């Protein structure tokens, strides 16, 4: 983590989440100060502004979000509140208090061209993209709002974009955790044919990326700056299983081909089409093998 002459006082939304909790614990181990933003504060710009002043906040890391790969009608309000309203309240509170530096986490769902569909109509708008999921649509919907505050309040937004993250304590039910638990408990696991491409970033590397983004927020001019935070190594689920089996010393009971591919699977690296620059001054340090060892150690 970067230590500045004057330690930063960082407000973190989504601090109880997987990446947020890791960011809090790792940052608190340095000379910097980290404070969790309670969810009720994100419903009132005035209350949040008062809290930001009281806590003498210098920087904000916005990790709160509502995610689901699929949705039903009852999910709509949660998507709007979690991905649009909270960010808008946060930006307004920052404008009221004169705070300028905001770091956010983006995802492949927002920038991978495979997640968007062409829109037909009488007006061809190159800025309009048809998001294939409500998650991606609502995450993208906050960006014009952030751009408004960049133009009117000199807000500097630095977004660290990840394809996927993993690590100890991850309870989100993602593929890495499912495979690890299958191997540890010798439980069969149904999978697709396992030929899609994954780009996995260990949570420690993700935290370091957010810390680097804070540095850039202090150096950049007002605007929205997006950077990809990816490993140079892409691998398939079949290759991931091989790594896990080697670490465990036994075969996993993976039933390949039992599940159908989703319509949004990636079989080529998406970053080549998304045209996002890499995060300056950061690179992934954790190998898959080292990451597996960290999860197994935490599970023992």
Summary of the model, kept short:
By secondary structure, the chain is α/β, with parallel strands linked by helices.
SSE order: EHEHEHEHEEHEEHEEHEHEHH
Cα(first) to Cα(last) distance is 28 Å
- Per the CATH scheme, the topology name of the domain at 9-167 and 199-231 and 268-284 is Rossmann fold
Strands, total number = 12
| Proportion of residues in β-strands | 15-25%
CATH architecture of the domain at 9-167 and 199-231 and 268-284: 3-Layer(aba) Sandwich
CATH superfamily caption of the domain at 9-167 and 199-231 and 268-284: NAD(P)-binding Rossmann-like Domain
Mean pLDDT: 91
Tally the helices. 10
Poorly predicted segments: none
Percentage of residues in helical conformation: 40-55%
CATH class of the domain at 9-167 and 199-231 and 268-284: Alpha Beta
Overall morphology? globular
Major sheet, described briefly?
Answer: 6 strands, parallel
- Rg: 20 Å
**Largest beta sheet: strand ordering:** 2-1-3-4-7-11
What structural category do the secondary elements indicate? alpha/beta
What does this structure look like?
α1 (18-28) crosses α7 (203-219). The longest helix is centred in the N-terminal third of the chain and has 22 residues, at 76-97. β3, α3 (76-97) and β4 form a beta-alpha-beta unit. The protein is α/β, with parallel strands linked by helices and 300 residues long. It has a domain at 9-167 and 199-231 and 268-284: NAD(P)-binding Rossmann-like Domain (Rossmann fold). The mean pLDDT is 91. It has helices at residues 18-28, 45-54, 76-97, 108-111, 134-153, 175-185, 203-219, 237-248, 271-274, 288-299; strands at residues 9-13, 33-36, 59-62, 101-107, 116-117, 130-131, 156-162, 164-166, 189-190, 200-202, 223-228, 254-255.
């Amino acid at each position: 983590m970067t230590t500045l002459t004057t330690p930063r006082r960082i407000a973190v939304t989504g601090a109880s989440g997987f990446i947020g909790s890791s960011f809090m614990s790792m940052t608190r181990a340095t000379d910097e100060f980290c404070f969790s933003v309670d969810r009720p504060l994100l419903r009132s710009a005035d209350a949040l502004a008062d809290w930001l002043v009281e806590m003498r906040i210098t920087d904000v890391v916005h990790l709160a979000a509502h995610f689901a790969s699929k949705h039903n009608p009852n999910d709509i309000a949660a998507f709007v509140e979690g991905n649009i309203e909270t960010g808008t309240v946060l930006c307004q509170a920052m404008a009221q208090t004169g705070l300028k530096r905001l770091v956010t986490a983006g995802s492949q769902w927002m920038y991978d061209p495979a997640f968007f569909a062409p829109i037909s109509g009488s007006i061809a708008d190159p800025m309009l993209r048809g998001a294939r999921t409500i998650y991606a649509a609502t995450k993208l919907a906050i960006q014009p709002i952030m751009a408004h505050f960049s133009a009117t309040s000199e807000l500097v937004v630095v977004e660290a974009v990840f394809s996927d993250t993993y690590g100890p304590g991850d309870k989100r039910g993602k593929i890495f955790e499912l495979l690890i638990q299958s191997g540890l408990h010798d439980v069969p696991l149904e999978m697709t044919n396992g030929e899609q491409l994954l780009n996995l970033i260990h949570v420690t590397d993700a935290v370091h990326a957010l810390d680097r983004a804070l540095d850039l927020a202090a150096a950049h001019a007002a605007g929205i700056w997006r950077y990809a935070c990816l490993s140079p190594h892409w691998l398939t689920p079949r290759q991931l299983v091989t790594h896990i089996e080697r670490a465990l010393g036994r075969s996993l009971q993976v039933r390949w081909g039992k599940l159908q591919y989703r319509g949004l699977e990636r079989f080529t690296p998406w970053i080549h089409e998304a045209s996002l620059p890499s995060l300056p001054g950061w690179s992934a340090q954790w190998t898959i093998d080292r990451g597996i060892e960290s999860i197994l150690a935490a599970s023992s």
